[in-house]
Write a structure and sequence with these properties.
- With about 210 residues, the protein is an alpha+beta fold.
- The protein has one domain: PPM-type phosphatase domain (Phosphatase 2c, domain 1), CATH 3.60.40.
- The chain is about 20% helix and about 35% strand.
- It has four helices and eleven strands, in the order ββββααββββββααβ.
- Strands 1-3-4-5-6-9 form a six-stranded antiparallel β-sheet.
- The longest helix is centred in the first third of the chain and has 14 residues.
- The chain is globular.
Length: about 210
């Protein structure tokens, strides 16, 4: 199993030994003036596929970071679960916390399945106009809406981008799938992170041949 986790605001990329069907990166930073970030990310792969997630703990500072960390822990080691189960696990793990917004994408074979609650956005680039993946209002850990997973077929070179609401949506119109996922993630964070919130960006490029 190979995983890349960003739970405290520093960009990380795990490339060495990564399967040839997916490359990814995370870029993040806390609200200016804070030492920890309430936004977190997880990318984890095994022979059952991949889970790509972004979490935005409500508010900022240590309580938000604690909620986000719980969600990441609930997702870890669950590449074989479907997205409904993943969201449900996070909901149970976050009870009693301030809650979080959550976006989870699972890749298995050439299929992407996505579920989002709250204001973590996900975009799919690579087939003409970018596609925004469905979000439902709610708070994971407090008010969970009925699951409505979205399924998309992936093609080689497609790029999935997840961002917390600390990242302005202007990056979508300016998006260029050029260079490594780390370069793309860093450019989005540097150009569009809001000064009023934590921010996280997760970028994953599908290279074909994922485990089914």
């Amino acid at each position: 199993m190979i995983s890349s986790v960003c739970a405290s605001g520093g960009p990380q990329l795990a490339e060495r030994g990564a399967p040839p069907w997916l490359e990814w990166a995370v870029a993040a930073r806390p609200l200016p003036g804070e030492e920890v970030s309430g936004d977190a990310a997880l990318v984890e792969l095994d022979d059952g596929g991949a889970v790509v997630a972004a979490v935005d703990g409500l508010g900022h500072g240590a309580p938000a970071a604690a909620a986000a960390s719980r969600a990441v822990a609930a997702l870890r080691g669950r590449c074989r679960d479907d997205v409904d189960a993943l969201v449900g696990r996070c909901h149970e793990a976050l009870r009693g916390t301030r809650g979080a917004a959550l976006g989870v994408a699972k890749i298995a074979g050439d299929e992407l399945t996505w579920a989002g609650v709250g204001n973590v956005e996900a975009w799919l680039f690579g087939r003409g106009r970018p596609a925004a993946l469905l979000l439902r209002p709610g708070v994971v850990g407090e008010a969970l809406p009925p699951a409505q997973p979205v399924r998309e077929q992936l093609r080689r070179g497609d790029v999935v981008v997840l961002v917390s609401d600390g990242v302005g949506s202007g990056f979508v119109d300016a998006f260029e799938a050029v260079g490594s996922p780390q370069r793309i993630a860093d450019a989005i964070l540097d150009g569009y992170a809001r000064e009023s919130d934590d921010a996280v960006v997760v970028v994953a490029r599908y290279l074909g041949g994922a485990a089914a």
